[in-house]
Inverse folding.
């Protein structure tokens, strides 16, 4: 409860209180948070980047050569916010940290369960967390203080990308007994349209709207943490859950395996996905293959966005250099952590829509991946 009050206070300071209307509460951290590092910041430029194409969120965005030369610093703990414990970001983050921590000289990464990207950003900007997973849409809009992130960050250019590790695909799991066979069947149902993170529900609600359904009056929507959403789905309190994560989502798999024949995936129509993509050009249309989930023998259309690790600009460059270096050098091993990583090659790690952190930039420059 103390953590929840603290998080809510942070979110208020960034204008996020409205997002907590359906809040089921932030997940409990999986490790004790270490104090934010007090090491002297290494040079990190906050200069505005060159104009970028928002339609290609996977494109490399390089700042000028930082001039940073890697040199280890005193080793400290650095917290890393991810998602709920059954979420892809948590599983991936824990896997990366396990590998990197064995080799890094300057950092020990403590991966924590959170309510998602919005909480990760708020905690980072408040100095209570050092790294966090965010998706391309929120990264870009938050960095430039635009669109739905305009009132949620206090100023421009507050953070950088370190690595881009995987993609997140939004898809919906429904109870078979709900009678939901398509998005057009959502009228009158109770649907978790995503997490309390703004990026967790915005796209889903836009997609539902393309079917002529008013999400405010034609159905009951709730925003819940991933773990609470799945509990309430299994208890029959809600009819379907939409989650945006790398597939297969462990929470979906666990529910399907625990109760065969109880759940099904709902596939949206391509023309409706195209309408959503027109609203959010950082998205791409993808397909979740048949057999990804046990007993689901059909493919599912979905919207995908890139997922990156971000950190405040004042984070020591030695730390981001090491995270980039050891993730890159051990990527083939790290890919075994989750199937979502298989779609990302090691050379894709520096791809981002905003500048890389100076330490990560220096490493990827040293191996010729960025200019």
């Amino acid at each position: 409860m103390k953590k929840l009050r603290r998080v809510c206070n942070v979110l208020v300071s960034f204008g996020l209180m409205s997002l907590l209307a359906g809040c089921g509460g932030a997940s409990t951290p999986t490790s004790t948070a270490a104090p934010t590092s007090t090491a002297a910041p290494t040079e990190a430029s906050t200069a505005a980047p060159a104009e970028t194409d928002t339609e290609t969120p996977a494109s490399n965005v390089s700042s000028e050569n930082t001039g940073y030369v890697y040199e280890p610093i005193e080793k400290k703990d650095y917290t890393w916010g991810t998602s709920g414990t059954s979420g892809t970001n948590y599983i991936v983050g824990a896997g990366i940290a396990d590998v990197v921590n064995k080799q890094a000289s300057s950092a020990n990464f403590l991966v924590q369960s959170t309510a998602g990207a919005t909480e990760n950003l708020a905690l980072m900007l408040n100095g209570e967390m050092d790294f966090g997973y965010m998706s391309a849409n929120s990264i870009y809009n938050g960095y430039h203080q635009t669109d739905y992130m305009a009132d949620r960050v206090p100023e421009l250019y507050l953070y950088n990308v370190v690595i881009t590790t995987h993609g997140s695909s939004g898809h919906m799991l429904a109870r078979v007994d709900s009678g939901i066979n398509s998005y057009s069947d959502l009228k009158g149902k109770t649907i978790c349209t995503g997490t309390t993170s703004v990026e967790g529900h915005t796209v889903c609600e836009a997609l539902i709207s393309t079917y002529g359904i008013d999400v405010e009056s034609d159905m009951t929507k709730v925003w819940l943490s991933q773990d609470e959403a799945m509990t309430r789905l299994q208890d029959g309190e809600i009819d379907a859950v939409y989650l945006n994560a790398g597939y297969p989502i462990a929470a979906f798999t666990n529910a399907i395996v625990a109760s065969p024949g109880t759940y099904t995936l709902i596939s949206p129509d391509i023309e409706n996905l195209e309408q959503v993509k027109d609203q959010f050009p950082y998205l791409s249309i993808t397909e979740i293959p048949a057999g990804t989930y046990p007993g689901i023998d059909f493919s599912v259309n979905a919207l995908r966005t890139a997922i990156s690790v971000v950190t405040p600009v004042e984070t020591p460059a030695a730390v981001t250099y090491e995270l980039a270096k050891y993730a890159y050098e051990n990527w083939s091993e790290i890919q075994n952590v989750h199937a979502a990583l298989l779609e990302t090659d090691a050379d894709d790690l520096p791809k981002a829509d905003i500048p890389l952190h100076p330490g990560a930039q220096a490493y990827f420059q040293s191996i010729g991946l960025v200019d």
